[in-house]
Amino acid sequence: MQNPSDQTCLSQAQQHVLRLIFESQDGQRVLPHASTIQKASSSLVSSLPDQGHGIQRTTEHVLEEIAPALNHQALSPSYYGFVTGGVTPAARLAEEIVSAYDQNVVVHLPETSIATTVEDHALKLLLQLFNFSLEAWPGRTFTTGATASNVMGLACGREHVINGAIQKRRKHLASQTAQTVGELGLLAACREADIADIQILTTLPHSSLKKASSIVGLGRSCFHQVSRSKDGLEFDLDMLEERYGDVDALRALCDKYDAWLHVDAAEPNGSTAFGLFARILESSEEFGYVHGGAEGLELADSIAGDAHKLLNVPYDCGFFFCRHPGQTQRVFQNANAVYLSAGSPSLDNIESPLNVGIENSRRFRALPVYSTLVSYGRRGYQDMLQSQIRFARRVAWYISQHPDLELLPQALSDKASIDRETYIIVLFRAKNEALNHTLVKRINDFCQIYVTGTSWNEVPACRIAAANWQVDPERDSARVGSVLERVLRDWRHAH
Question: Can you give the pTM of this predicted structure?
């Protein structure tokens, strides 16, 4: 039951959020102090209260004790961890509506809500942003993120490969029984198809791909790396020529051998794998190399992507595109639940989301996507990405010229290559080995920027990933340089 204090507390929370959004992030801490986190942890309620503390006391607890212990990953352009985007004002506005109306976007019932129609339009706008044909990608849906989208891609690939083998064997055995993985289950379908092993050929798979492979029953060990080097992102042309054919013929090989070509396009990983968003750039002198790194994605059977990264919409939001909608329906069809049926087919040909995706309970993730794309358009997103790239190139050049730091990979040795090949991620390390092992922690201890650790050629390295819509190349590269200089100065003073 609502009472006046409910409205007062909701207003307090909204004012708190508005202050965070509209206050300038310049000079603000990206991470909370360790003492703040410790204080918040000790304030957490560990035993369920019998009567409850009431909304006023709970509001104070959330705003005054918990909120200060949260990082500013979406609020600050100086959070460079994990390719974490922020939230554009248009997306944040829409998110408020999403929370207020709290739609479950699962069944297409256009006479009761416009939610599924908005989702269909948002997905079409997204395809247009990436310069994909709407007709070529009829299978499309929103997910919780790239991990779920990779699960969908590998599940569809599994369905395609095994079902194809079943059909071939059925013709050989003159059997007409309709059998699929979705109906039989993985083990029975593999027996029916006479399949003992399925291989996934890739270069440097993201960890979520191996997780997805485990979920769909193929296993992590089915991956076979065919890259130039252990940490490489380029296909080894000689290996492919010897074992699988030329790279340019991969699509033809997939068609010839009934393989499924899935692209994990969620995260840029290097100079030759720029991710899906590189497709929104123009092929200019400044960005032509990056744009070229995303060519050919339209040849895939399925594509996984994240919207909560470079699209800068709230967590969690991913998307999945598939050229073969029949596969998604065979895998994800929600059968035998009359109350979840849309009834007669709709005139707009919009499929109920529960029949083409993992979830039967879905947040209205599409509205922030729709709102931000309508608000900023193609040019707005080009401008955001160009600023992020220019920032990364400024940081990379600064590091390459520093006597105590080393830019990675070493092939980026001159300004021309840095300004041509750097996308939104910068890898580097300290030349002093002892410092390098603690460099990430020393940087983050200042709480002014946040970076993540990684490795390069089995040596620790730092990773800066620019993905926030607020990035300013000059301002933010200067801040990074200032923090790095303070870290190096403190190290020299201590040693």
Answer: 0.91
Query: What is the amino acid identity at position 256?
Result: K
Q: Which residues of 276-315 are buried (b: 16+ CB within 10 A; e: fewer)?
A: bbbbbbeeeeebebbbebbeebbebbbbbbbbbbbbbbbb
Instruction: List the 425-430 sheet strands across, edge first.
Output: 405-408, 425-430, 459-465, 452-456
The pLDDT tens digits for 150-188 are: 999 999 999 999 999 898 887 765 555 557 898 899 999
Which residue type is seen at 298? E
What confidence tens digit (pLDDT) does each residue in 372-395 have? 999 999 999 999 999 999 999 999
- Residues shown for the chain: 495
**Are residues 309 and 467 in contact, defined by beta-carbon separation less than 8 angstroms?**
yes
Residue 31: φ, ψ to 5°: -115, 150
Q: Which of 265, 317, 333 is nearest to 143 (CA)?
A: 317
For the stretch 415-470, pLDDT in tens is 999 999 999 999 999 999 999 999 999 999 999 999 999 998 889 999 999 999 99
